[in-house]
Amino acid sequence: MGIFLLELLQEKVPSVLASPAQLGVEATIISLVQWLKLLLETIGAVIIGTGVIIAGYYLFRRLLPPEDVNYNRIRLILARYLALALEFQLGADILSTAIAPSWDQIGKLGAIAIIRTALNYFLSKEMKEEREATSQAGLKELPENK
User: Fold this and answer.
1) Are the CB atoms for 86 and 119 separated by under 8 Å?
2) How far apart are CA 125 and CA 78, in angstroms?
3) Per the omega criterion (within 30 degrees of 0), is the bond before 143 cis?
């Protein structure tokens, strides 16, 4: 009786007993995660590009006319953008582990995540130390640092 009922259910309601792969749900989720990962990577790249342009603007502005340039404040501006971009890149890496098909890829992504997290930690630490040194010296901050 139980086998007959199971066969009847499979014939009449195949979508209820179908696997996610058969329904295309798994492929749809993987595709959405890949698009989200691409979006996060793009946002990170745009943030880095923006930071380079802004820091470059302040650098050239300080060089013309030539004066005693404090590069540390300009480095702080760029460092803030890099730290933010690293957060987005790390988010993209975490999404990659959700759809990684092998342990090898998960290991590589884990190593990348550790490296990016360490970079972000030391960048944040350097920014904090530089901010403290700048405020103790009484130097005027650039507009982006306020």
Assistant:
1) yes
2) 14
3) no
